[in-house]
Amino acid sequence: MVTIIATGCGAFPGNLPPTFIPEEYLPTAIELTAQALVDEGLIEITPAPQPTSDPDIPTRTPIPTETSAPSNLEGEITPTQTIDLVLDNPEPLTLPDPLPYGEIQIIRPGRLSRVTSPFTIHAYLAPLQSDREENSSYQVSLYGEDGQLLVEYAFTREAGQAGNTHLVQEISFDISGAAESARLEVSSRDSYGRLSSLASTDLILLSEGDPEIKSIQDLYENLIIQQPIPSTLIQGDVLILQGITRFAPGDQLVVELLNREGGLVGSDVLQVTNENLGFGYRPFEGEISFQVGFSSWIRVQVSAKDGKFSGIQHISSVEVLVSP
Fold first, then answer.
1. Which residues, listed in sequence order, are joined to residue 316 by a DSSP beta bridge?
2. Among positive and negative, which fits the CA dihedral 189, 195, 199, 201?
3. Phi/psi at 21 (5° precision)
4. Strands 113-116, 195-206: parallel, antiparallel or unpaired by DSSP?
5. Quick check: 127 and 157 in contact, CB under 8 A?
6. Half-sphere exposure (CA, 13 Å, Cβ side) for 277?
7. pLDDT of residue 129
8. 112: which residues sit within 8 A by CB, 6+ positions away?
C-alpha cells in the first residue's frame, strides 16, 4: 500500500488532499488513466521508433526503475551501496537508448493550457534514489506572471515506498484580471532538503470562460545527465559533466554542486550546443571545479533558468561521492 503523508498550507483551505493509488493497482490504473487521456485528446504519447541498425535511435521502455540508494552518513560507504571509481574519459555524447522517462511527469494540463478555477493536475512521480532509506518531499506550486506564489501544496513520500505515484490534485486560484499567464511546478527534495528534480508547464489562468486543455508531446525526461553516473566516486577537484537537454533558456544551463549541509562547493554555467541529436535534444558538457576537505556526498544539480515566474523551468540532478 502506497501511503503518503500530505500537509497542506494556507493556500489550500478546505481542499481535499491529493488522491494516491495503492501500489498493487498502480500499473492498471496508470494504463487506464493514460488511455482515458488519449481517448479525450488530452495526451498524445509519441510512439517508440521501430528497432533499426542505427544505435542512436532510441526505443521506449517501461517506467523508470530504481537505483541503489546513497549512504545516509557523510563520507560513509555502507555494505549495500555500490561505489564505482571513475577513471576513464567520458564517452562521446549520443542519445541514450532507450530514452528515460521524466522523474516528474506532468500529464495534465499540457503547456499553454487555458484553465479556470479549480482545475486538476495529474502527474506521475518516480521514486528518488534515496527513497529506500529516507523520506522525500514533493511540492506543487503555481506562480503568477509577476512571480507571486499563488498556490503551494506539499506532501511527503515515506521511505521504502516502491513504484511510481500517481498524483491527482485539484487546484483553486484567484486572479484580479480576466486572464494571467502562470507557471505550474512540481518539484522534489531529497532527505537533506536539496532540490533533486523539478518539472514545470506554463499555463494561462482565466477568471471565467471555457477552459482549453492542451495535449502533451511525450513523457521523456527533458534534461538528462549522462555523466557523472549516480553513486560513483570522483577523486580530485574537477567533475566532468555531460548530458543532453530539450530545455536551454538562452542556450545555457546553471550547474551547482551542493553538499548534504546545503553548502555550495562548486558552480558554473555551461553552454548548450546547436547540434540536434534527435527528438529536440542538444548536448552540453563541461568541467566543474569543486572544493571539499574530506569525502563528501554532493548533489550535482543542473537547472534550466529563464528568469520568468519562479525563474526555473526544469531541474535534474544526481548524487555522487567526491574525495580530494
1. 302
2. positive
3. -105, 135
4. parallel
5. yes
6. 22
7. 56
8. 202, 203, 204, 214
What is the rounded CA–CA span in Å between residue 281 and residue 224? 9
193: its cell numbers: 532538503
Cα-based torsion angle of the residue sequence 166, 193, 263, 308 in order, rounded to the nearest 10 degrees: 60
Among 130-134, 155-159, 300-304, the range scoring the smallest mean pLDDT is 130-134
Distance CA 43, CA 214 (A): 8
How far apart CA 59 and CA 74 sit, in angstroms, is: 38
Residue carrying C-alpha cell 568541467: 287
What does 168-187 look like in DSSP terms, one character per residue? Answer: EEEE----SSSEEEEEEEEE
Which residues are paired to 115 by β-bridges?
205
Distance CA 137, CA 187 (A): 8
Burial label, 315 (beta-carbon count in 10 A; 0-12, 13-18, 19+) = buried
**Phi, psi angles (nearest 5°) of residue 251:** 60, 30
With cut-offs at 50, 70 and 90, classify the pLDDT of residue 104.
Answer: very high
C-alpha cell at 237: 577537484
- Structure-model confidence comparison of residues 27 and 286, the more confident one: 286
CA angle 268, 245, 82 (to 5 degrees): 75
Instruction: For residue 172, count CB atoms less than 10 angstroms from its CB and return exposed for 0-12, middle for 13-18, buried for 19 or more.
Output: middle
Q: What are the grid coordinates assigned to 226, written together?
A: 549522462
Query: Domains along the chain?
Result: 4-45+101-206 (2.60.40.2550), 84-97+223-323 (2.60.40.2550)
Provide the 8-state DSSP code for 118: S
pLDDT in tens, 240-267: 999 999 999 999 999 999 999 999 999 9
Cis check: omega of the bond before 228, within 30 degrees of 0: yes
pLDDT number for residue 193:
93
